[in-house]
Structures are given as structure tokens and as C-alpha cells.
Amino acid sequence: MKVLWVNPSFLDYRVPLYQELNNCLNGDFNVLFSKNRIPERVIDKVERALGTNSYGLEGEWFLKLGRQGELSNEGVQIPFQAGLLRAIKEIKPDLIIGEGFFQWTPVAAYYARKREIPFWIAYERTFHTERNCPLWRKIYRRVINRFVSGYLVNGSLTTEYLKAEINANDKPLVEGCMSADGANLSIRVNEAKEKKSKGLKRKGITYLFVGQLIYRKGILELCQAWSTHTTRYPDDVLLIIGDGVLREKVQESTRYLSSVRLFGSIDYDDIYQHYAEADVFIMPTLEDNWSLVVPEAMACGLPVATTYYNGCYPELIKEGRNGKVFDSLNPQSILEALAYFHSQDLLAMGRESVEIESNYSPKEVAKRISSAISAKN
Fold first, then answer.
1. Strand partners, 310
2. Which of 3, 39, 223, 247 has the least CB density, counted as fewest CB within 10 Å?
3. Beta-strand (E) ranges in 248-316?
4. How far apart are CA 364 and CA 341, in angstroms?
5. Residue-level pLDDT at 199
């Protein structure tokens, strides 16, 4: 069975999953993507992983409608990709997976319907991320849902949304279909840790944030709480990795805090050095479907703290075992989360993180996906 995943845009984390899917499907997995959206390094990786089973298209352009913002459903971008339908026809798939309801999905769904082949959708959204979804979008998704064979979803929050809002109750919804490139990252982190001096032990905890410096990631809320946190825990350190429109505000809010270290944007292939330095990972996001840096940190053996606004928290954060869930809109909740780790066995929590994340490795997710689409079609 030849499977085609039509996904115009993805980053490094998808490549190991695609490679594992190709193994599970005996070399019959293919991916179609936009060369205009994907960084050159990722194109190189996916082409090395899949060879002639990777197809990149050029010349995509967008019609942008409404105010474009960083939160979900702020404005609309309608993509136009010349040769998309022709490329699908040339690949001749027996089953198609679309990425979400929009982007290139309408063309993929049309082809699947016309050829009477199964059509699955990989979907990530939750009630929270879709809280501002306009009615016309819901109606459109319900129409597309009529042609969908099944859904590959992140976790329970996505399942709840699809059942309640998109009327997908009669469709198979396969949870646990999102993975990070944790295995490769953890190997490099462990090597880096072995090189560190065993004799040097700091008094405080080193917390790590990795993400864009934008409103949606809750970085300002974290920095504001940190200034209070350090009065009680002066030996703690906060490492901030990333860049964005809030960079100057973050710098201004932490300029008098020697415990905060801003590193700017770090290449993905070098990020392991900072995971190796950290004791706890924190993601104070105000809106995320499934923040991939959380399972990345877990694979590296770190306890984790994230918010109720992060779609991954029910599956990945087990309080009392590997982390803490908090409300980034409540300063006291952030302070309690930061303080929480001072009374925990961080190494034991890190081991729990590794165990929990192992169920979401590229290999395990590929098995889950390939079994689901093979069993139902």
C-alpha cells in the first residue's frame, strides 16, 4: 500500500517519524511538501531519509485575508501551489494523509474522493487553541469531515474537540500520533553530560526555556514571576533560548537579573548543549497544540513544567512523577511551579520523563499510525 502524507510545512522533528513510517510500510511511504516553507536543512534531512519518496514543490504563494497574528484564527492565508494535483496523480497513492483541514488538504481530499481511496487527516488543535474559531471555519471542517476515513491526533484534548465540534464521533480517532526527535537529541545530551566535570555542583536549579520570544509563549509572564522567585531562591538560573518580537522587552524586564541568561536563537543541531546544562524545563505557553520542546526535554531526562493551555499536558505531565502543570496567567501559580522542584528528586523525575516520552518516540508513533491506517483500510 503506497501512502502519501501531504504536508506543506514541517521541521526537523518530523523527519525521524517519516523515516520510521517508511520502514513500517516497507518503503511505500511518501511525503509531499513545499520547498518555499521548509528550511534547506530540513529538505536535506528528509531527502536523505526518504530518497525518491520525498517530493518538494516550488512556487507556492498566499492570499492573505484579515489581520495576521500569532494566535490561532487571526487572519486567513489561502495557499496556491501550482502542480499540486498533478504531483499527487504522479505519485499514485493508495491512501492519503492530509495535514489539518486546510492548506493543501482540499486538493488531497478531492483526489482521494475521486479515486475512492482512504483519506486520513493528521490533526492537532484543541478547544483552547480553537476558542476563537469562526463559525464558517467550523462548517467547512464539518464538510471535509464527511470525506475523512479517520484522524491521527496528538491526544485526548484533540479528540474531545473533534467529537464535539466537528461531529467526528463515527470516525476512528487514533491518539498519540505526535512525536519529537527525542532519541537523537538525548544521545547528544548524554554525551555532553558525560564530558561535564563531576566535581562541580551548583546550589540552585537551572531552568530552561526554549521557544520563540512572542506573546503566545508566555515568556513575559515567566520573566515577571522570575524576578520575585529569585528573591527566595537566589542561586537559581533561568536560561532563555530563542528570538522574536519580544526580545527587547525580555531584555528590559531581566536586565538587572544576573540569574537570567539570554542566548538568542540557537541552531536546532546545537540545542542539545543547553538541554544538557538544565535541571528543569519550563514552557509557560498561553496557547499550543502540543509543544514539541516538552517531549524533547523529557527525552533528555528533564523534569518539565508547562501550562493548562498546552495540549500535551494530559498525556505528558504527570504531577508527582515528572513535572508540574500551572497557569501562566496567574503569577502565583508560576511561582508555585518554580518552587515545586526544590522539594523534588529531580533525577527520579527525569527518569520518569524518559519513560513517559518513550511511548511517543518516532518508532512507537510510526507503529501506531501504520497499524491504524492498515487495519481500517
1. 288
2. 39
3. 260-264, 280-283, 304-307
4. 30
5. 47
Please name the residues in contact with 90: beta carbons below 8 A apart, sequence gap of 6 or more. none
Strands (E), 81-183: 95-99, 119-123, 150-153, 173-174
> CA-to-CA distance for 358 and 183, rounded, in angstroms?
9
Q: Is the pLDDT of residue 108 over 50?
A: yes
pLDDT score of 88 more than 70:
yes
Residue type, 52: T
3-state secondary structure 81-104: CCCHHHHHHHHCCCEEEEECCCCC
For residue 293, give the amino acid letter: V
Write down the pLDDT at residue 52.
96
The residue ranking higher by pLDDT, 195 or 200, is 195
Query: What residues have CB less than 8 Å from 151, skipping those under 6 apart?
Result: 120, 121, 122, 123, 162, 168, 171, 172, 173, 174
Quick check: 197 pLDDT over 60? no
Q: State the DSSP H helix or E strand holding residue 206, giving kind and residue range, or none if neither.
A: strand 206-210
CA torsion angle 337 340 344 349 (round to 10): -10
State the burial class of residue 255 (Cβ atoms within 10 Å of its Cβ: 0-12, 13-18, 19+): exposed
Q: What is the pTM of this model?
A: 0.91
Q: Provide DSSP, 261-276.
A: EEEE---GGGTHHHHH
Report the percent of the chain where pLDDT is more than 70: 96
Average pLDDT over residues 246-253: 95
DSSP state of 288: B
* The pLDDT of residue 4 is above 80: yes
